[in-house]
Amino acid sequence: FDGKNVTLWKYESWLPVRKRVSLNEGGTPLYRLSNLERELGVELYAKNEGANPTGSFKDRGMTVGVSKALELGMDKVICASTGNTSASLAAYAAKAGIKAYVLVPSGKIALGKLAQAIIYGARVVPVKGNFDDALRVVVEASAKLGVYMLNSINPFRLEGQKTIALEIYDQLGFVPDNVVLPVGNAGNISAIWKGFKELYEKGITDELPRMIGIQAEGAAPLARAWKAKKPFEPVENPETVATAIRIGNPANWPKAWRAVEESGGLFESVSDGEILRAQELLASREGLFVEPASAAPLAGLMKLLESGELDRGESYVLVTTGHGLKDPNVVVNRFTLPKPIEPTLEAFREVMK
Ligand code: F0G
User: Fold this and answer.
1) What does DSSP assign to residue 245?
2) Complex-level ipTM beyond the 0.85 threshold
3) Which ligand 1 atom lies nearest to the CA of residue 87?
4) Which residues carry this modification: N6-(pyridoxal phosphate)lysine (predicted)?
5) Which residue of 82, 161, 282 sits with most ligand 1 atoms within 8 Å of its CB, as the best mutation to test the pocket?
6) How far is the CA of 343 from the centre of ligand 1 (A)?
7) 85/80 Cα distance (integer angstroms)
8) pTM to 2 decimals?
9) Is the domain 58-152 a CATH 3.40.50.300 member?
10) Is 95 helix (H, G, I), strand (E, B) or coil?
């Protein structure tokens, strides 16, 4: 019994699938970031995708994708992943009672995500190499070995993820001027743009947002090409503290490029330092703990407001894509705790001074 929970299946008629493997995904909160609004002088919201069942927006794509796998009679599913996709696929495959193979870059996946993939019962396969290497193997395996591929090249993933746009509109009651989100394999930015376009084409809305895609400096093939006005070129050895978006050759880059171009948006990149500072700001000012990749949008917004490329008079929705607990190490490694005190009031009184 799933009760009267509000999930993305509220938009069932917008989704091209008949079966339903669900963990009650979607229906995530939209926060007004009132403290940061005062500091930055803009109208600012966060769509908190960390509130999904496995802690990231990937659940929206997986509920539709795994449902489609069942509809097609597939009993094995596969993905390459920097972590969140693998956690999500593992959970939905468990619920569906089918086998999941997840290929992850060896040693480069956040602890929480690895724990999730393991405990949900997926076959976790570390790969010598990065996400781009793992994805190549997955694409070949899905063509030759009878496993259903659930990376975001799969169009049903994007159908699920477009519901982020539908929910933002429902929750705000208007179309925001700008949607700012992290870009890795470049599926989500295309999916959200598709959602806003469908709202517009059905005559439900008469406006469209600008799509602002933020990448990490060491893994920024799209931002680099965009800013230099040069053709797209993959990045050979992507590197960033935001392991979720440590991707050098985004499979969906042409779709993402089109979304940004059509919407009048832009791509920007931010440094690891800027990402970690934004992560701390979201947590310490707003009580919103997100993983590093999900702090990239705030870092990007601050950079673009500073440079004058974005306007303070507009509204901004940050898509905070994954929960902070996914990657506890990145936080605890940055801060050192003080030495333990004696268990006495006197010792604590000293602390308070
Ligand atoms: N934010 C988080 C937390 C992610 O996990 C990802 C992608 C993105 C943003 C970027 O989204 O790829 O659609 O541009 N993670 C994938 C994974 C690659 O394997 O979990 P995208």
Assistant:
1) G
2) yes
3) 20
4) 58
5) 82
6) 44
7) 8
8) 0.97
9) no
10) helix
